[in-house]
Amino acid sequence: xxxxxxxxxxxxxxxxxxxxxxxxxxxxxxxxxxxxxxxxxxxxxxxxxxxxxxxxxxxxxxxxxxxxxxxxxxxxxxxxxxxxxxxxxxxxxxxxxxxxxxxxxxxxxxxxxxxxxxxxxxxxxxxxxxxxxxxxxxxxxxxxxxxxxxxxxxxxxxxxxxxxxxxxxxxxxxxxxxxxxxxxxxxxxxxxxxxxxxxxxxxxxxxxxxxxxxxxxxxxxxxxxxxxxxxxxxxxxxxxxxxxxxxxxxxxxxxxxxxxxxxxxxxxxxxxxxxxxxxxxxxxxxxxxxxxxxxxxxxxxxxxxxxxxxxxxxxxxxxxxxxxxxxxxxxxxxxxxxxxxxxxxxxxxxxxxxxxxxxxxxxxxxxxxxxxxxxxxxxxxxxxxxxxxxxxxxxxxxxxxxxxxxxxxxxxxxxxxxxxxxxxxxxxxxxxxx
Length: 434
Prior knowledge:
Layout: H1 2-10, E1 23-24, H2 26-36, H3 38-53, H4 56-59, E2 64-81, E3 87-109, H5 113-179, H6 185-219, E4 229-230, H7 242-252, H8 254-274, E5 280-294, E6 301-314, H9 322-389, H10 394-429
Parallel strand pairs: 1-4
Antiparallel strand pairs: 2-3, 3-5, 5-6
Helix pairs in contact: 1-5, 2-5, 3-5, 5-6, 5-8, 5-10, 7-9, 7-10, 8-9, 9-10
């Protein structure tokens, strides 16, 4: 019996910890993903572009200043007939002209469209920030799901390893019983088949864990062959309340926030479109220098410099009803965004309700499987006593062993599903912590 309890204790001791490897915590996995994940980095670049676009000049609020320079030269055979009838001719007559200066243009009024455009650029920056948060939340969720899947599979591997130890001990017992004539060769062969079956499961489980680690390395954007150990245990929060989650989601759910911003952007687009009904007033100014030379003509050389200034105004009187069409389309965009907000809110609420029901079910299953595991453990102890004294067969002992291993596996899987349900709920709310 002492040996039996030693074997049972092995079920709670991770076999893999004997290997000298660095333990990667869930927090470290998330931190690495935040630094290296390609989706996060790409979204950060998109946000940087949105920030660069948020300028007064891009919205049309600032003047434009342009420097100009031009020079032209010609060499022609010229012939001129004057009003008096006099004819003037010159071969290879040279004509040169040069102009340079600066010009200033500033739209001082465009129906307040420039202010609407600036506000729109600001909202686009805010949208980029929320998109980054959304990608971060999604990435954190993927990393945690993958991480805890590896924890589960490692625990199941430990369970298989411990089952192999029990099967190995059973094989020795069966061989001893066969040697003294208390068991048949068939019993020994059956136990050997059971042990081989456990070994086969172990190989498949190791392959699964390696593939999962490769996927987690991909999410963290590091060497795919980088091996590591994960934490042995994890805990889930049993105190989440559906009413609190629904209230938080109404203000924190990132999808809802994005759609609300889209509605605001659509309203600013409508405001910009309506501004085109009003006149556009633009100030113009400049300082220019010009000079010209002519070998043939009334003026052989001239130059001028000075300041120019003025104002231009334009007003759209009729454009084939295009202005009215564009305004109607913009209004439809605002109405559509409002409908999308209501639809998304209903979808988010429904998703939270369904996810919460799964969360509560998984917590109940975890508690139930905990009781089943304790019963299966007690049953295995009684069965071992009977097997030692020969009152039950190896097949019956194998059934008790499998029942206990399966109960352990179901308990670990129930805890895992409860943890995933917690992560999914927090991801829906938009507030996923570790």
